[in-house]
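Incident log, structure service

09:12 report received: a user says their structure output differs between two submissions of the same chain.
09:20 pulled the input from the user's history:
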Amino acid sequence: MPRIRENTVRNGNFGEADARKTRSEVPMKNPVKLLHSLYLAVRYTLPIWIDQHTHPPFFRSIQYRWLSRTHRARVKLIQRQYEIAFGRPLDLEAPKTLNGKIQWLKLFRPDPLITLCADKYRVREYVKEKIGEQYLPKLLGVWKRPEEIDFTQLPEQFVLKVNWGSGQNLICRDKKTISETGYRKTLRRWLRPFANQYYLALEWGYRDIPPRIICEEYLAFLEQNPKTFKIFCFNGEPRVVQLVMDDKTPQETINYYDTEWNLLPFRQNFPNNPAKIPCPVFWEQMLELARKLSEPFPFVRTDFFESPDGVLFSELTFYSDAGLARFEPEEWDEKLGEMLELPEPMIEKTK
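09:34 re-ran on a clean worker, output below:
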């Protein structure tokens, strides 16, 4: 009997009057409110669930591209990102921490000069004007599409990178061992719209960069001395340096120093290096170059290499670690935040 009842109900031949009666007794929700609740759930809750449970860049970038079309939506997304990373709400009215102030800069300082300088190709113009071409690695080529690259014209060693990403580098140490097809496939993937750093971390400065592939000289000295000096500049003044050793290897370490090369007692992302690292030979020169390059910006990280012949420019970074990396101990987030005086917003704050 239960099976017959189930079938007749499914076919609409049994209990129809009872069903109508039951439905009529249940008050209907306002359809507008129902749709609005569904909209809010999809727009603001789904991205957080995806961030908490999955991390494929493709899916994260697609949701950000879809959800970040308005300033109000970007504010909501960045607030959610920050809350997931730190377990507390983001204060955009009066942020005190460095990470909080970086989020503020993402939202309220859409400076076109940042877009130019976040572009790993066009920043060369800025560096040439500010400190001189001699600090730049040699440029071997620039292309719009991977198919345009003629590998026969490149030297035996070189570095290929895209201009709108982070860490997207192909380092060729021996041209005879590489797969040109594989290189082109990788570059093609990096040039897809969803690979733009803006759609991965909502870093505004990357959004309007026209994609390019650039080829620079291979820096052999980094094999023997793999150090990168990343100088945090606040309102045009160098204050803290991040020394990265063995970058992107299992042995990677990061130390922080003040401008007098005193080790600072905190860490981010990676362990500190226990060795006593000597002050670089060209340290004063690096500080002066960082001061000149950072002059127009409230906050920027100026990155350099130290070669046997002097200092080489690496890149400018306006949103260090996307403003989402914890300090250990946490008090240093606020200590560094005190060094940054925020400028007037370029976009009216959203209430």
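09:41 both user submissions now match this output. Likely a transient worker issue. Closing.
09:42 reviewer note: Residues 138-218 form one domain. The chain has three domains: 31-90, 98-110+221-346, 138-218.
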